């Protein structure tokens, strides 16, 4: 995540007073502000989503390649796909 202050933008949220008081305590324990606490949590959430999406795409790709290998193997063409894939990965 980028931390360049010139690229940051403020966000306004509304929370009930009790939640704000509890957030102040949590932020103080972590030596940060409520804003810093929220920024860390949102950046973590976004990072988790990005990692999930990369893993999902890789799983789909892996399943496709496995399916293609099986299909080509049944047709006696698996070695051609292996050579093509090896060239792509070089």
What features would you describe in this structure?
By secondary structure, the protein is mainly α. The chain is 73% helix and 0% strand. α2 runs antiparallel to α3. The chain is rod-shaped and about 70 Å long. The two termini are 29 Å apart. The mean pLDDT is 82.
Termini Cα gap: 29 Å
Whole-number mean pLDDT: 82
Q: Give the DSSP E fraction (strand runs of 2 or more residues).
A: under 5%
Which shape, going by the Cα principal axes? rod-shaped
**Rounded Rg:** 24 Å
The biggest beta sheet is recorded as: none
Number of domains: 1
Number of helical elements: 3
Low-confidence stretches: none
Secondary-structure element order, as H and E? HHH
Oligomeric category:
single chain
How many strand elements?
Answer: 0
Please outline the helices and strands.
Layout: H1 17-29, H2 34-74, H3 78-89
Short summary:
This protein is mainly α and 90 residues long. It has one domain (15-89).
């Amino acid at each position: 995540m980028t931390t360049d202050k010139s690229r940051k933008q403020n966000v306004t949220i509304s929370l009930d007073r009790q939640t704000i008081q509890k957030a102040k305590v949590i932020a103080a324990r972590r030596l940060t502000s409520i804003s810093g606490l929220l920024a860390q949590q949102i950046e973590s959430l976004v990072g988790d989503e990005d990692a999930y999406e990369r893993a999902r795409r890789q799983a789909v790709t892996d399943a496709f390649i496995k399916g293609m290998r099986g299909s080509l193997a049944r047709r006696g063409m698996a070695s051609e796909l292996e050579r093509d894939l090896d060239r792509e990965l070089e």
